[in-house]
Write a structure and sequence with these properties.
This protein is α+β, with helices and mostly antiparallel strands and about 375 residues long. It has nine helices and 17 strands. About 30% of the residues lie in helices and about 20% in strands.
Length: about 375
């Protein structure tokens, strides 16, 4: 199969989220898989938006390996592209287009690897592909899929095809995104004593956040949790006392500080002046370096997790935050052909040779994992 041609075709589907419109690309992928003997289901996320769940070679004695990715992409941004973002143009060793890196190249490589694994010796336990809609806005599609009660079965391991330049990451921090609101009473600015200034309340809260240090142990893989205020909006005009302010809080959690702990701590510190609303609540993911599956991946990728200074965790969130706990916490690796620094960028590209390499890596991991988990 020609993985480059499939990647280019995936890029030509406009799945910018919002609105996503993943139905057509889901059917395209599903048709290819059905043609190669996979059982394919299309769980509906919303009108015009479908997931893909495909299986082949399942066994009653061994759980399948799960390959997962998402079908949506982010908007193009304000900057002008030098290439057509949906033409999937190849220049030299670079395949350009929105979603080339994040993560249609990864989806294509998983698709081809899954199909080709059955051409010779079918992997024991089989393969399950889970391709989601609406990942980019906080893994909402995967969350909906799991909360709907859809039976995803079990997994011996999970590979998430997000962009890592084919470097196998064994975890990522969690994400707790919050909207913080303060309210007050409006008045003329010449008589501020008649009002109640919501911006002052927000300022007091933000000052507390700036000096906040989570009392959490350092995670061996993920380090320390972090917090950031990224956006603020409040007030009507210059000469009025503001009666409403909103700002955002971004907490990146670890296995040593869960999101629910961070949320309760913020509620206690900020007090009744601030109302907190959750936007995204995704858990940290971590797989041990000495886990047998990590060992398989390490050998296949010739990657030494013991080497000093090597990056072992992704800096971004993935659907693993939802799928890994739902599938009873199997070992999880983030590994894909895209370039991490090109995700969401203008003139996004993925190296052609990385896509070809990813197919071989996925296939070898699937075979070795099946061999060692018999």
């Amino acid at each position: 199969m020609d993985v480059i041609s499939i990647t280019r075709e995936l890029i030509r589907y406009n799945t910018i989220n919002p609105p996503g419109n993943e139905e057509e690309i889901a059917k395209y992928v599903g048709t290819i898989l059905t043609g190669h003997g996979f059982s394919v289901d299309y769980p509906e996320y919303a009108k015009g938006r479908l997931h893909v769940v495909a299986t082949k070679g399942l066994s009653n004695t061994q759980s399948p390996i799960v390959l997962t990715g998402h079908l949506d992409v982010v908007p193009l941004g304000a900057a002008e592209w030098s290439v057509d973002p949906h033409a999937a143009e190849i220049i030299g060793n670079k395949l350009y287009g929105r979603g080339s890196t994040d993560m249609k190249a990864g989806v294509a490589a998983m698709l081809v690897a899954a199909i080709e694994c059955f051409e010779h010796l079918p992997p024991t336990g089989g393969i399950k592909l889970i391709l989601t809609a609406d990942e980019e806005l906080g893994c909402r599609g995967a969350k909906h899929l799991c909360e709907s009660g859809y039976d995803l079965g079990e997994a011996s391991a999970i590979i998430v095809g997000e962009p890592t330049s084919n470097t196998p990451y064994i975890g990522h921090k969690g994400g707790l995104y919050l909207t913080a609101k303060t309210t007050g009473v409006t008045a003329h600015s010449s008589m501020p004593e008649l009002g109640d200034n919501a911006i002052y309340k927000a300022a007091r809260a933000i000052a507390k956040i700036e000096t906040l240090r989570f009392e959490a142990e350092e995670d061996d893989l993920l380090g320390y949790p972090t917090i950031n205020v990224g956006k603020i909006d409040g007030g009507l005009n210059l000469n009025s006392v503001p009666d409403k302010t909103e700002f955002t809080i971004d907490v990146r959690s670890t296995t040593k500080l869960e999101n629910k702990q961070a949320f309760q701590l913020l509620k206690d510190i900020l007090g009744e002046e601030v109302i907190l609303e959750k936007l995204t609540d995704l858990s940290a993911i971590s797989t041990a370096e000495d886990h047998p599956f990590t060992q398989v991946v390490s050998e296949v990728c010739a990657f030494d997790y013991q080497q000093k200074g090597v990056k072992k965790a992704a800096s971004f969130l993935t659907d693993a935050s939802v799928l890994t706990p739902y599938l009873n916490n199997p070992p999880t690796i983030i590994l894909g052909p895209g370039e991490p620094n090109m995700a969401h960028q203008t003139d996004e590209y993925c190296y052609v040779d990385k896509i070809l390499e990813a197919v071989g890596i996925y296939k070898e991991i699937i075979f070795e994992n099946a061999k060692r988990t018999k």
